[in-house]
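Note to self: user wants both folds in one dump. Writing first protein now.
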Amino acid sequence: MMTRYKILLPVAIATFTLVLAGCGESTEDASPPSDTVSGGAAPGATQTTADGAHNDADTTFAQMMIVHHEGAIEMADLAVEKADSEEVRALGEDISAAQGPEIEKMQSWLSAWGEEPAPASGTGGMDHGDMGQGDMDMGAMEMDGMDQQEVMAELQSLSGTDFDRRFLDLMIAHHRGAVEMAESELQDGRNPQALDLAEKIIDDQRAEIATMEQILSNL
């Protein structure tokens, strides 16, 4: 009986050792997928960094669209304050909320590209004299033949439904100018992030134009 026990004990120990070794291999095998996942996340993180490859059209697009957006926000904030219609006030809030982050994005691109930031204008609007025009038509920066200061002065003088109607008229013209600028970027630009934003601006602002035309028809 003792002899049989002495024979079985080494066999049991050897079997237990093999089981432990097998468990160790399973633990090691589980590690690489974790490393692969974390390693795969890095490229995604770098996609938020501005691509340095750009041309003059990209620079002009960013500089001019920043100023253009600033003008839209100035008008939109006034609509939030003065509009008679709840729809117009809500529209103003939406425009301001959407275009503020886009301004920050384009400012970060210009910094990353080593380009000059868009020049500040006196009223947050469009200072045409300081802007490099590139291939973009400066008419895209005007509304009904007026510059930003003239537009703001007119809107300030209005109230009630008169304000709402004129605001919508002018913002529709303003949005059409942004679409024109974005289309120029799609034609001449190079930077992938700038091209993506140009497409987004075209889609967003055409949708808002349709909304404003509908609101205007009901006033």
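First done. Writing the second protein, which came from a different request thread.
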Amino acid sequence: MHLPDALTPATSETQPQTLAERRREETRLEIARAAAGLFAEHGPQHVTAEAIAQAAGISLRTFYRHFSAKEDAITPLLTSGADNWVRLLADAPERDPLTLFPRLIDEVLLPQTAADREELRVTRGVLRSITETPLLRAVWHRVNADSEARLRPILSELCGPGIDPLNVRILATVASDAIRLGLEHWAAGDADPDGAEGVPAAIAQQVFARLSRGLAA
């Protein structure tokens, strides 16, 4: 969802990134993709930090400059979707989250390009690997907890000063869990391996619709 750097708001939400920051994020994402591919192909327990570094074309020293453990290496891949989710919410013109979130779910989970489909395919492999490895599950849950926390102040501003803080927390939880459950349930099955058919988005829409009924009331 992200832990190094993942627990801070995305730089794009505050000020433009420098060239060095962009290169650093690109390097981290390249490492994450290499780690995800190896985890999906061989199983996390059979992959070493050395293997990830080699697959990413970097030295082991460079790997440890970015990540403290092999499990943390998937963090940028998982948080890229969460960063997009938060950015879209912050930039949205709508004021009603109950109509806004269904649109954002489709924007986040319906792939528009070959690169989007490949990223979903890799993410699916990671999520399938997570079931075998407690440390990877911990990374995934921290990513989602961070995403939820980052949604709260945006939702408070979106809904205005009269919103009940508890409702803000509930809405942030419902939105985050809709994405999380949509991805997890899709990844556990065999249909739509790259998300092109819209299965993860459809599941997330169902989850959000069911969980948000109480808020609508």
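Dump finished. Worth passing along: Residues 70 and 104 are 31 Å apart (CA to CA).
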